[in-house]
Amino acid sequence: MGSKVSLVGCRSYNRDSVFKAVEKSIDLLGGIDSIIKPKSKVLVKPNLLTDARAEDCITTHPQVVEAVIEILKKISARIIVGDSPSVFGERKDIEKVYETTGMRQVCQRQRVELVYFDKAVVKKGFPLTEWIDKCDYIVNVPKFKTHNFTVLTASIKNLFGLVLGFYKARLHKESLNPEDFSKYLVDIFELTRPVLNIVDAVVSLEGDGPGSSGIKVDIGLIVSGQDAVAVDSIFATIMGLFPHDIPMIKQASSRNLGIANLEEIEIVGENLGEYIRDNFKLPTIWFYHKLPSILLYFAKRLIKFKMVILPSRCQSCRKCIEICPMCAISLRDDKAYIDSKKCILCSCCQEICPYRAIEIKKSLLLKLLEI
Ligand code: SF4
Ligand code: SF4
């Protein structure tokens, strides 16, 4: 057996249930003191994508983060919490994310430091938050969701938030397809290697996640493990996929950064089989991934996706305009408009739109192929 992953049932975000589930999931791995040296400095990294409320299930639930903090306190860890959400520049925007997601309230209650990722250490060309060097360990606390560009987001993808805001847009701009983007994600994972991943999969998102276009789905699990590749492979399986269907898992395992073969993963706690969904709603772009590459090569011009704005829902908040790495969005007649010639389908606009006003439209041929 290689990597160990624990699955613990957790049916609600009730404080006690979450604490017990998180504690049990870590105990099943051998206990927190077998993973982290007492009195160490630990960076806790939740997924705080945007200024969504806990009940929207877009960000890591504050109760899960609070449970992680309480467990780390048992070994007298010095705890830092932070993220680089998908908003740019101004401190007030990040503050709004910390406030709305409930992270500020958790950190105040627990008297731990909530920091901003505004100073970088550059590692292999990536400007990563300086906190990775100021801390002894990273504890990764992602949310499991679908993702319209990378298919799923959990442990590996959450580490993208260690990159400083402005540079994330550049990486998107340089990644014209999910495979290229996954290479960057795996590079960042290799540079940061969290000591522990504790994933909030109590209520997740299926369909067109990871933002407000996703659909809430009860998974009812806290999943933990030291091997991020093994943990994410469990989520691919829950979605009804093979781990190697997900480009970032495939790349990470081919670079020997973790185990993606389920037979080599030691699963403890719940029975994985009971959580596998054969009707899990995959993101729209999934169809693109599953086409044989030879067919994809010839049919590329015909099999098209297009990111479109639904004018009736657009509130002209400009968030999508600010985040688009390709400057493909502008306001026309007071509604957002996407220039599809510039769009690389990175999904950043869709994940940040608070009003579900951005959708992926499929060409007629694609719709026919799906039938
Ligand atoms: S599409 Fe969404 S994010 Fe863009 S301006 Fe409209 S409401 Fe705001
Ligand atoms: S329009 Fe949206 S999907 Fe297209 S490049 Fe811009 S942010 Fe990405």
What would your notes on this structure say?
It is a single chain. This protein has 371 residues and is of the alpha/beta class. The protein has 15 helices and 16 strands. The strands form four sheets. Strands 1, 2, 3, 4, 7, 8, 9, 10, 11 and 12 form a ten-stranded mixed β-sheet that branches. Strands 5-6 form a two-stranded antiparallel sheet. Helix 1 (15-27) crosses helix 2 (62-73) and helix 8 crosses helix 10. The longest helix is centred in the middle third of the chain and has 15 residues, at 178-192. The protein is globular. The relative contact order is 0.15. Bound molecules: iron/sulfur cluster (2 copies).
Largest sheet: 10 strands, mixed
Q: What small ligands are held by the chains?
A: iron/sulfur cluster
Radius of gyration from the alpha-carbon trace, in angstroms: 20 Å
Please state the average pLDDT score: 92
SSE layout and pairing:
Elements: E1 4-9, H1 15-27, E2 41-46, H2 62-73, E3 78-83, H3 91-100, H4 103-110, E4 113-116, E5 120-123, E6 126-129, H5 131-134, E7 137-141, E8 143-147, E9 151-153, H6 155-158, H7 165-174, H8 178-192, E10 196-207, E11 214-225, H9 228-238, H10 247-254, E12 266-269, H11 286-290, H12 293-299, E13 305-309, H13 319-323, E14 329-332, E15 335-338, H14 348-352, E16 358-362, H15 364-370
Parallel strand pairs: 1-12, 2-3, 2-7, 3-4, 7-10, 8-10
Antiparallel strand pairs: 1-11, 5-6, 8-9, 10-11, 13-16, 14-15
The structure holds iron/sulfur cluster (2 copies).
